[in-house]
Specification:
With about 220 residues, this protein is an alpha/beta fold. It has a single domain, classed as Rossmann fold (3-Layer(aba) Sandwich), CATH 3.40.50.1000. The protein is about 45% helix and about 20% strand. It contains nine helices and eight strands. A six-stranded parallel sheet has the order 3-2-1-6-7-8, sandwiched between helices. Strands 4-5 form a two-stranded antiparallel ribbon. Helix 1 packs parallel to helix 3 and helix 2 runs antiparallel to helix 3. The longest helix has 19 residues. It starts with a strand and ends with a strand.
C-alpha cells in the first residue's frame, strides 16, 4: 500500500520554508531591507493560489541571492541540523510521526509530497533514516538567486506522484489543508489532520464521503 503525506502542518508543526527563509533574511540587513520593500507586493501574492508561486519566488530570490547550488544545499542542511537540535520553532507533530511509523512498520511505501523546496524537505526527512521518498517544489537559478520552478502544490502534487511512477491513486493521503483536495480525492482513505465536527463537515462538503478527520 502507498501512504502519501503532506509536510508542513501535517508532519511538521510549522512552516519549514518560511522559517528557513526568515533565518537567512534576519542575518543580513540588506536582505531584511529588501524584504521590507518587497513584502507589500509579495505577501498578498503568496495568499492567492494563482499568484502564490510568483510571490514566493520574490521572497525566495531575496533570501538566496548570491548562493550557488552547493551553498544552497549547505544552507538547507544547516537548517535541518538546527531543527534536529531544537534550535528553531519547527517541531514534529507527534500524531504525524506516529502515523508515519505505523505505515513504515506495516511495510507500506511512504512518500512525502510538499510545496516546500524538495532540497529543504529532504534535509528534514532524510536524517530520519527511513525509506521515505520526498517530492517537492523544484528550484531554478535566476539572476544570481533561486526561484520556484515547478511549484508542487494542489493538482501538481498528483502530477509529481504520477511522474515518479506512483500512478493516479494511492491508499492513504494525509494533509492539513483542502488546498490538497486533488491529493485527498486520489486516495482510498483520505485523512485531514484537523479533528472535530468542523473538519468532518469540510470533508463532506468536498465530496470526500470516505474521508476522516484526525486530531494530531
Amino acid at each position: 500500500m502507498l501512504a502519501v503525506f503532506d509536510l508542513d502542518g501535517t508532519l511538521l508543526d510549522g512552516d519549514s520554508t518560511g522559517l528557513w527563509l526568515w533565518g537567512r533574511v534576519k542575518r543580513s540587513p540588506l536582505r531584511a531591507l529588501a524584504v521590507l520593500v518587497a513584502a507589500p507586493l509579495a505577501a498578498p501574492m503568496v495568499m492567492i493560489p494563482r499568484t502564490r508561486r510568483l510571490g514566493a519566488s520574490i521572497l525566495l530570490w531575496i533570501a538566496t541571492a548570491g548562493l550557488g547550488e552547493r551553498a544552497l544545499r549547505d544552507s538547507c542542511a544547516k537548517f535541518g541540523e538546527t531543527f534536529r537540535a531544537g534550535g528553531n520553532a519547527l517541531a514534529w507533530r507527534p500524531g504525524g510521526l506516529a502515523a508515519l511509523k505505523a505505515h513504515l512498520d506495516a511495510g507500506d511505501r511512504v512518500i512525502v509530497v510538499t510545496a516546500a523546496p524538495a532540497i529543504l524537505a529532504q534535509a528534514l526527512i532524510g536524517p530520519l533514516g527511513q525509506p521515505i521518498e520526498v517530492l517537492g517544489t523544484s528550484l531554478k537559478r535566476r539572476g544570481g538567486g533561486w526561484v520556484a520552478d515547478v511549484h508542487c502544490r494542489h493538482q501538481r502534487k498528483c502530477q509529481a506522484l504520477a511522474e515518479a511512477g506512483h500512478g493516479a491513486h494511492w491508499t492513504y493521503a494525509y494533509t492539513d489543508s483542502l488546498d490538497d483536495l486533488p491529493l485527498l480525492r486520489g486516495a482510498d482513505k483520505p485523512v485531514i489532520v484537523k479533528g472535530g465536527k468542523k473538519a468532518e463537515r469540510r470533508l463532506f462538503r468536498a465530496g470526500l464521503t470516505n474521508g476522516r478527520a484526525a486530531a494530531w
